[in-house]
Design a protein that fits this description.
The protein is an alpha/beta fold and about 450 residues long. The protein folds into two domains: about 5-250, P-loop containing nucleotide triphosphate hydrolases (Rossmann fold); about 270-430. Helices cover about 40% and strands about 20% of the residues. Strand 15 (about 420) and strand 16 (about 425-430) form a beta hairpin. It is globular. The N and C termini lie far apart (about 55 Å). The model is unreliable at about 255-270 and about 435-440 (pLDDT under 50).
Length: about 450
């Protein structure tokens, strides 16, 4: 087997909230990146993929376990590891040449040497002639090429790519990905191994020698799928489509959960309330269910075909599919989405019936919604401020994810007429029979 360049052994990472509560982001992560391979890492938003990448880059430290670079403990940024960010991370007041030279300048490389090496890296990535341009004068794809040239100019052993193509339009992202793969096959490529974090399943299969599926809460490697197809790979070939289907199946597999009553007796544990809900709005859920019920799907569809039909990215489609499955309106199995009998009733129903069924399923399957409803029913005022809920969620999820989860449950709760929310007073309240109340909005 090829030499291991970068390795994690039982790595864990925890963050503390403002009140000192500890939240586990990564736990028991084992991973080895070998000489000559590209590994793709797939997982839901918030699963800890970017945190893992920053640990590998030496930008942050692990709280437990070992991080080894060529067999030696990694305690900070290593000269042989470079990273490409989703946001380009260029200095807008510096030219292309100056941005690419930054890493060399920080390492004390002489001006003439770093200018020569930067020009070579810029030419290597296909930007020759743009050395004097400012980032604002470049397209998104060109700006990301600058970011890649800046990473490659230091001749790194390992290139870490954090959603490097996701901020680009589809065609630009595909062209840049193909150029990187073509460069990978040449002697001019200094890098010996790449780890690519992505939300795009097809991209992962086309690029990687191994695809890792990352689980959440806490983040850990759940599945590893070897990809032995020769490059370049035809995205329309039967072999690639079969692997894409297999990854979809892995990404949509979730352990069975215990049944939950429609109303919760007493306050559940904070960890149960702070479930990481899929990021899916009701209109997109309804649209997906309606499409699933129509020909040619007739109630059951393969997720890759649904992605093509809806023109949704994997990062957009998978949370919606998980949301309708969570509520019992559809079933996810082996990469297929199928309407349940209740989902068929939902799709065939009028608006009022849809709201009723949605609310019923929300209370049965989302503990946070059931908890909010129960507190409201017990409150003399019939109201509940959002701040205590945000604090409770933040202890488990962090501030940003807590706000997102609460926004999601409010959106779902309003659609199911389980509760309302006043954005001015930031109070949840029991539904009223009043119509035309403009203060209650999602």
């Amino acid at each position: 087997m090829a030499d291991v360049i970068l390795e994690l052994q039982a790595v864990a990472k925890h963050f503390r909230s403002a009140d000192g509560h500890q939240r586990s982001v990564l736990e028991g992560v084992d991973f080895a990146l070998r000489d000559g391979e590209i590994v793709a890492l797939l997982g839901a938003s918030g699963s800890g993929k970017s945190t893992l990448l920053r640990i590998l880059a030496g930008l942050i430290t692990a709280d437990a376990g070992s991080v080894l670079y060529r067999g030696q403990p990694l305690y900070g940024p290593a000269r042989g590891i470079s990273m490409v960010f989703q946001s380009f991370a260029l200095f807008p007041w510096l030219t292309v040449q100056q941005n690419v030279e930054l890493g060399l300048e920080a390492r004390g490389v002489a001006p003439e040497a770093r200018a020569s090496r930067a020009e070579s890296a810029i030419a290597l990535i296909g930007l020759g002639g743009f050395e004097g341009a400012l980032p604002r004068e470049l397209s998104g794809g060109m700006r990301q090429r600058v970011g890649i040239a800046r990473a490659l100019v230091t001749d790194p052993d390992v290139l870490l790519m954090d959603e490097a193509f996701s901020a680009l339009d589809v065609l630009t992202g595909e062209r840049l990905r193909d150029d990187i793969l073509a460069l990978w096959q040449t002697p001019q490529m200094p890098t010996r191994a790449m780890l690519v974090v992505s939300h795009n399943i097809e991209e992962a299969v086309l690029m990687a020698d191994r695809v890792l599926v990352f689980a959440s809460d806490p983040g850990r490697v759940q599945q590893a799928l070897p990809v032995t197809l020769a490059r370049p790979r035809d995205p329309d070939s039967a072999e690639v489509r079969a692997l894409v289907d297999e990854v979809y199946a892995l990404m949509t597999h979730r352990p069975l959960r215990a049944a939950r009553p429609a109303a919760l007796a007493g306050q559940p544990a904070a960890a149960l309330l702070a479930e990481r809900l899929p990021e899916a709005d009701v209109s997109r859920m309804d649209g997906l269910l309606d499409l699933l019920a129509e020909p040619p799907f007739n109630g059951r569809a393969h997720l890759p075909l649904l992605a093509e039909e809806t023109e949704l990215t994997d990062a957009e489609l998978l949370p919606v599919a998980h949301a309708v499955a969570l509520l019992g309106l559809a079933q996810l199995e082996a990469g297929d989405l199928q309407l349940t009998p209740l989902g068929q009733r939902y799709v065939a129903g009028h608006h009022g019936l849809r709201q009723q069924l949605f609310g019923q399923q929300l209370l049965a399957h989302v503990p946070l919604a059931a908890h909010i409803r129960q507190v409201l029913e017990q409150s003399p005022s019939g109201e509940l401020p959002d701040k205590p809920l945000l604090r409770l969620l933040a202890d488990q999820l962090g501030d940003r994810e807590a706000a997102r989860v609460l926004h999601t449950v409010i959106d779902w709760g309003r659609h199911g007429e389980v509760f309302e929310y006043n954005v001015t007073t930031r109070q949840l309240r029991l539904p009223t029979d009043e119509e035309g109340d403009d203060s209650a909005v999602a």
